[in-house]
């Protein structure tokens, strides 16, 4: 007999594994979405902290009085396993009774093993879907060129500083090494000021980086841009050092 699943479930909870591969430095995991109650939220956060560490989990879960499928909290916590740490540049998303894992893995042999593991964990009425690919060696080249440095701009603008240009000179050399691979340039800001203005500024800065790299003979069609504003912080925006780290440019090989 088919179980009835509430129709008002639009979005439950998904985990964002950092867009840029953690080959150079460990980046925090942003956990966001909707949980039906505080107890479920705390169970999920506790499991995430066990797997990734307390300092590496950023809580953006909202609690709302909504209906959940039977066993929802247990189904979510069961799929939070150490195997997730093998996945880079991806997402684990739980929406209603659909569990979806996407991302890249360093070892091609791990892909089927990971799929099998999750298929054994996810039980009816929940369904598992995956899209896992091999992590590209080119991303490592880009990450190592950036060396965890911040590409700086003039305050409140998209004008590159001299030090920012110097880093991009090195990035251009790295981009030449990865051949014709396409790369997304992602701009981020801290949370100071108006959110909509920060979103615009992050896009303008990503565009400025693209324009500069084009002057270094990187083909425009290889480069795309995205501005995320303050939506994906690396550090605590309550401190000056945290805000400095959050004002950054990232590069993702596509």
From TrEMBL:
Keywords: Cell outer membrane, Membrane, Signal. The keyword Manganese does not apply. It holds the Pfam family OmpA. Residues 1-26 form the signal peptide. GO terms for cellular component: cell outer membrane. Its main location: membrane. It is found in: Cell outer membrane. Residues 144-254 form the OmpA-like domain. This is OmpA family protein.
């Amino acid at each position: 007999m088919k179980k009835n699943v509430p129709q008002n479930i639009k979005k439950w909870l998904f985990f964002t594994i950092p867009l840029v591969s953690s080959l150079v430095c460990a980046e925090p995991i942003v956990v966001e979405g909707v949980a039906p109650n505080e107890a479920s939220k705390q169970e999920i956060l506790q499991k995430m902290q066990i797997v990734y560490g307390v300092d590496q989990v950023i809580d953006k879960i909202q609690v709302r009085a909504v209906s959940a499928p039977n066993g929802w909290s247990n189904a979510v916590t069961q799929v939070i396993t150490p195997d997730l740490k093998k996945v880079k540049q991806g997402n684990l998303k739980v929406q209603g009774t659909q569990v979806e894992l996407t991302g890249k893995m360093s070892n091609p042999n791990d892909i089927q093993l990971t799929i099998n593991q999750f298929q054994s964990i996810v039980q009816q009425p929940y369904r598992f879907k995956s899209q896992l690919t091999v992590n590209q060696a080119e991303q490592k080249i880009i990450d190592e060129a950036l060396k965890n440095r911040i590409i700086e701009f003039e305050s409140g603008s998209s004008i590159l500083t001299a030090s920012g240009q110097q880093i991009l000179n090195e990035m251009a050399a790295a981009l030449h090494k990865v051949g014709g691979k396409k790369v997304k340039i992602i701009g981020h800001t801290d949370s100071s000021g108006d959110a909509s203005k920060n979103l615009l500024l992050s896009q303008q800065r990503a565009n400025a980086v693209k324009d500069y790299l084009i002057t270094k003979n990187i083909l425009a069609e290889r480069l795309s841009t995205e501005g995320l504003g303050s939506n994906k912080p690396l550090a605590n925006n309550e401190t000056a050092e945290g805000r400095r780290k959050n004002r950054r440019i990232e590069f993702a090989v596509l």
